[in-house]
Amino acid sequence: MCTYDAGACARLAAATSSDENAWKRVSEDTVRLDGNINKGSDKAFARVFDAQVRRVELNSGGGDVLAALHIADQMRDAGVEVVVNGFCLSSCANYLFTAGSTRTLRNGLVGFHGNIGECARREGGAEAWARRWAPKNASQAELAAESARYRALISTEQAYFASTSIDSAIFFDSCAPDKGLNDGVTYSFLLPSSETFARYGFGPIEGKQDTELQRAYNQTFHDTPAILR
After folding, report:
1. 95: CB partners within 8 A, 6+ apart
2. Domains, the chain, with CATH or none
């Protein structure tokens, strides 16, 4: 339970909600996401997004990879500014944060724990990844279908990242339980510092990771905290 700070706890609750109306047009030039990314989120985004939008504000715990990739493609093509005001974790960080022409942390926290392609590579490939997550009684046909689904996702993901300057090592490293720290501790998310962002090819980022939000997250998920480095 989050009790560290009322404001930080409220943002965490909003970021991890499943509101079907998570995307909202907050002004003529700004849309905002408060909630998880689900299978219909790309359609919800399209309903509020048009050529007038120049800024996308994010507060999301992440979610569906394919929907996030579809949203990221539109954001990248439009050249929008991304502002994290709250949490941006998992698929939000991997795709929506990386899609910005400029990126700002304004009382924001951005956390990575790998992507489909690099986590599958660490595991040994799409087939190994499918076996890891499939039910124990899955048939060979079911495993083959899941492997094909992951290969298609990885192909879509790779096509997206080919249009960015971001080093895929951030996803390979953050897929490891210790997030590349080699300290034997399991963390949920890597929260890159300004120097770490630069090392992985993100370029200039305005603002820094919000340690108050980190404390609220780590109080709530104390078994697997997020690590800033």
Report:
1. 65, 68, 69, 71, 72, 160
2. 6-114+176-228 (3.90.226)
Q: Which amino acid is at 60?
A: S
Instruction: Examine the pLDDT at 21 and tell me if it is beyond 90.
Output: no
Query: Of 195, 166, 191, 190, whose CA–CA distance to 177 is shortest?
Result: 190
Residue 156 tokens, joined? 């879509």
Band of residue 83 on the pLDDT scale cut at 50, 70, 90: very high
Q: 87: part of which helix (H) or strand (E)? A: strand 81-89
| pLDDT tens digit sequence for 161-211 | 999 999 999 999 999 999 999 999 999 999 999 999 999 999 899 999 999
Identity of the amino acid at 205: I
pTM exceeds 0.90 = yes
The residue assigned the tokens 């599958």 is 120
